[in-house]
């Protein structure tokens, strides 16, 4: 089996897509053989242009094999001979817009699909994996140990569908692409798996059962109708998907010596209260908003900043640069060194440019303001000294779920305690707020909030006036 795995490995190294991915790495990496190779046993789409990244369609909940291949040359990384390594699998967003709000997106998914996980390992089908684990607060992550010298195949199941994270407009929207990312670590001297060895990822879309097969067929038929000249601009459909080298996932804090909870299957019980205040199940904190590089940063700190912000590919090029050196680079310098796409991203990150929210609204709490006003009347104060205090709410996703979460933060209550949100319409009617209504709010609209106790339990209705 191992010899056939190795021959598969040498075959896939010759594939043009693998060469293209390598060409985006720094020049001294051009002919580098990577220590491991991961092969997802699912065909790539034929409707992908020559220089674009491959795209693979998966069916929701179906088990797909990922072969873990030892790709080391003789004498390379001898310290892992006879040792286990740890691999962490993640399903993450491919789109930058969704990456910025990943924490909120996954929390929203958790509430809509209680008890489900985004990513699972099919343990009975898998071969060679040791101690598989899944943290109940990280629905999109699984991990296990494996021995590179032995045949290892892990079967994964992805339970979220690409259209679950699409902005709803007219129905039939395109699903968002995800990434499957694998980060592999070796043990340090304390026996903790924290020393990064290799990371690779590929782009996927997930469909309802059998939907991936239909989409693959549609793409194939679409390509067959193209002229031979047009076909030359597209890649062939490969039988398997090679995960290509990428930067390590920045949240290395997860890979620590704290014992991971045991493996949970997607059918494990789940209470809605989990993760809200129980010390054992703290939800993952959202990433810090600002991570600006300082002129006083040493070259070592600058390297750490590059890794945290997904610029590991360029860390070798900038290994002697201090914070001040990097901050002195002009936009043209950075684009020349890193190429247009990564250059613009690095320049924006260096300047600490904030992404503007898609929608800003201002709200004030009516009952509180009226009480204050009434009190002033009674105390005989001049009414002219009264002014209403508004709070700004910034929305990225333009959904009712997001607005509920932001208002819950404002009132310092749990989002579950907000039963419904209404907008006061003509003649005082209460119109239920929908995603579409929020998408049609004017930027910087002002609302007065009134709260009304819901008929049941401890929840509230909120009315925007």
Structural write-up:
With 465 residues, this protein is α+β, with helices and mostly antiparallel strands. It has 3 domains: 210 residues, Immunoglobulin-like, CATH 2.60.40; 53 residues; 95 residues, Ubiquitin-like (UB roll), CATH 3.10.20. It is 26% helix and 24% strand. It is built from 13 helices and 18 strands. Strand 9 and strand 10 form a beta hairpin. Helix 9 crosses helix 10. The N terminus is likely disordered. One of its GO terms (molecular function) is DNA-binding transcription activator activity, RNA polymerase II-specific. It is found in: Nucleus.
What would the principal axes of the Cα set say about the shape? globular
Q: Flag low-confidence runs.
A: 1-30, 252-289
Helical stretch count?
Answer: 13
Provide the gyration radius in Å: 26 Å
**What fold name stands as the CATH topology of the largest domain?**
Immunoglobulin-like
Number of strands: 18
What features would you highlight for this structure?
465 residues; Immunoglobulin-like; 3 domains; 6-stranded mixed β-sheet; 18 strands; 26% helix; globular; disordered N terminus; TF_CP2-like; transcription regulation; nucleus
List the helices and strands and how they pair.
Layout: H1 2-13, H2 16-23, E1 36-40, E2 55-59, E3 64-70, E4 85-93, H3 96-100, H4 102-112, E5 119-121, E6 129-133, E7 141-146, E8 152-158, E9 178-187, E10 193-207, H5 211-224, H6 228-231, E11 241-242, E12 244-245, H7 299-308, H8 323-328, H9 331-338, H10 340-350, E13 359-365, H11 366-379, E14 391-395, H12 400-411, E15 418-424, E16 430-432, H13 435-439, E17 445-453, E18 460-464
Parallel strand pairs: 2-10, 13-17, 15-18
Antiparallel strand pairs: 1-3, 1-11, 3-8, 4-7, 4-9, 5-8, 6-7, 9-10, 10-12, 13-14, 15-16, 17-18
Helix pairs in contact: 9-10
């Amino acid at each position: 089996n191992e010899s056939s795995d190795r021959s598969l490995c040498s075959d896939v190294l010759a594939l043009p897509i693998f060469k293209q991915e390598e060409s985006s790495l720094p020049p001294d990496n051009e002919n580098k053989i990577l220590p491991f190779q991961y092969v997802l046993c699912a065909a790539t789409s034929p409707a992908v242009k020559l220089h674009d990244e491959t795209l693979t369609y998966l069916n929701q909940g179906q088990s797909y094999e990922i072969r873990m291949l030892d790709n080391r040359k003789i004498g390379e990384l001898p310290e892992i001979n006879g040792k286990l390594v740890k691999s962490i699998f993640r399903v993450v967003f491919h789109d930058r817009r969704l990456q910025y709000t990943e924490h909120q997106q996954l929390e929203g998914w958790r509430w809509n699909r209680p008890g489900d996980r985004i990513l699972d390992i099919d343990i009975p089908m898998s071969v060679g994996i040791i101690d598989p684990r899944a943290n109940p607060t990280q629905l999109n992550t699984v991990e296990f140990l494996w021995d590179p010298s032995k045949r290892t195949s892990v079967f994964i199941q992805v339970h979220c569908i690409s259209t679950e994270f699409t902005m709803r407009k007219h129905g039939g929207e395109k699903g968002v692409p995800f990434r499957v990312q694998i980060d592999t670590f070796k043990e340090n001297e304390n026996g903790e798996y924290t020393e990064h060895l290799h990371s690779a990822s590929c782009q996927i879309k997930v469909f309802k059962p059998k939907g991936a097969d239909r989409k693959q067929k549609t793409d194939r038929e679409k390509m067959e109708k193209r002229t031979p000249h047009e076909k030359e601009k597209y890649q062939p459909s490969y039988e398997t998907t090679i995960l290509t080298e990428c930067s390590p996932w920045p949240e290395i804090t997860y890979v620590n010596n704290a014992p991971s909870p045991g493996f949970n299957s997607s059918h494990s019980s789940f209470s809605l209260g989990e993760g809200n205040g129980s010390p054992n199940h703290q939800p993952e904190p959202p990433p810090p908003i600002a991570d600006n590089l300082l002129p006083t940063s040493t070259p070592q700190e600058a390297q750490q900043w590059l890794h945290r912000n997904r610029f590991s590919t360029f860390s070798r090029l900038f290994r002697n640069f201090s914070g001040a050196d990097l901050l002195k680079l002009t936009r043209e310098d950075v684009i020349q060194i890193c190429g247009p796409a990564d250059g613009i991203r690095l320049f924006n990150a260096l300047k600490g440019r904030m992404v503007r929210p898609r929608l800003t609204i201002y709200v004030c709490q009516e009952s509180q303001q009226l009480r204050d006003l009434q009190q002033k009347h009674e105390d005989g104060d001049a009414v002219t000294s009264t002014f209403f205090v508004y709070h700004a709410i910034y929305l990225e996703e333009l959904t009712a779920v997001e607005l509920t979460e932001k208002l819950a933060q404002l009132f310092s209550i749990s989002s579950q305690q907000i039963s419904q949100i209404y907008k006061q319409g003509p003649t005082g009617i209460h119109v239920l707020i929908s995603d579409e209504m929020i998408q049609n709010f004017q930027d910087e609209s002002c609302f007065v909030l009134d709260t009304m106790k819901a008929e049941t339990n401890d929840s509230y209705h909120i009315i925007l006036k």
